[in-house]
């Protein structure tokens, strides 16, 4: 398995700092969710047409890959559906230019429980449209276990309404687990669709979820890594540390060294046990 971090962890770093620090710390790759304040990735400075060649050279020079481009596309809201499709298509085009295998999208919310069927159908439609657009381009569109679409039953319901082979699942470890689903249950139901992962930890404090450094929370990381290793997963373990959205979280100078040390030790430990 390869190790990456998502750029939400370092919202104030320049692209050059991100690349340099990823290399220095020993990461294999970077997952992009905003750069230098720009969240719409086709407009981010390193990915503008005049800068793409230099960006690719920087990555190659430092032995790094971009493992996933994370969009803000959410398909639950009818009034934002077409703009989500537009962002998704433009991000797929960018992924092709950069040689990135995945983009991330959301189902996100169930605003009205009485309209669950219609919302699920709309999310599936958005996912299918982007999947069809991505076919033959070397890009897979990943639906993240996130928001109200965090558990395997609803994810499976959406996937059951799609047919494009360019569709998969991004397993965010924290969301299903902290909403009461065992990691084994999530994996058993979604295993054949899981292409990428987000490693995230949290704990309940007086009934309120608090994000925290990996290993300081309740998410059973060792069990998850063991399951993935036993089932032959060879993809990415990508840290999602939401400093961008939660400014009180640790600075990247703390969180990024802590993560790679933790996950490297855990991977080596599981290899020795197996």
UniProtKB/TrEMBL annotation:
The keyword Iron does not apply. It comes from the Bacteria. GO terms for molecular function: isomerase activity. InterPro entries: IolE/XylAMocC-like (IPR050312), Xyl_isomerase-like_sf (IPR036237), Xyl_isomerase-like_TIM-brl (IPR013022). Pfam families: AP_endonuc_2 (PF01261). The keyword Isomerase applies. Keywords: Isomerase. Residues 19-245 form the Xylose isomerase-like TIM barrel domain. PANTHER family: BLR5974 PROTEIN, HYDROXYPYRUVATE ISOMERASE. This is Sugar phosphate isomerase/epimerase.
């Amino acid at each position: 398995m390869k190790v990456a971090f998502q750029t939400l962890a370092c919202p104030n770093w320049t692209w050059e700092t991100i690349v340099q620090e990823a290399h220095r710390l020993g990461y294999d790759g970077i997952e992009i969710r905003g750069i230098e304040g720009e969240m719409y990735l086709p407009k981010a400075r390193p990915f503008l047409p005049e800068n793409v060649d230099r960006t690719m050279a920087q990555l190659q020079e430092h032995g790094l890959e971009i493992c996933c481009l994370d969009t803000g596309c959410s398909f639950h809201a009818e009034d934002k559906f077409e703009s989500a499709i537009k962002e998704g298509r433009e991000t797929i085009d960018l992924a092709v230019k950069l040689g990135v295998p995945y983009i991330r999208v959301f189902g996100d919310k169930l605003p009205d429980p009485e309209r669950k069927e219609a919302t699920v159908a709309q999310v599936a439609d958005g996912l299918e449209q982007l999947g069809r657009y991505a076919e033959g381009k070397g890009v897979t569109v990943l639906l993240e276990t996130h928001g109200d679409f965090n558990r395997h039953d609803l994810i499976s319901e959406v996937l059951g309404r799609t047919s494009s082979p360019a569709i998969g699942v991004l397993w965010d470890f924290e969301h299903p687990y902290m909403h009461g689903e065992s990691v084994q249950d999530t994996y058993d139901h979604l295993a054949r669709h899981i292409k990428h992962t987000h490693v995230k930890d949290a704990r309940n404090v007086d009934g309120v979820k608090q994000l925290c450094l990996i290993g300081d929370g309740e998410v059973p990381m060792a069990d998850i890594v063991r399951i993935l290793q036993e089932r032959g997963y060879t993809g990415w373990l990508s840290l999602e540390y939401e400093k961008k959205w939660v400014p009180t979280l640790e600075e990247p100078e703390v969180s990024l060294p802590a993560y790679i040390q933790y996950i490297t030790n855990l991977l080596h430990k599981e290899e020795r046990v197996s």
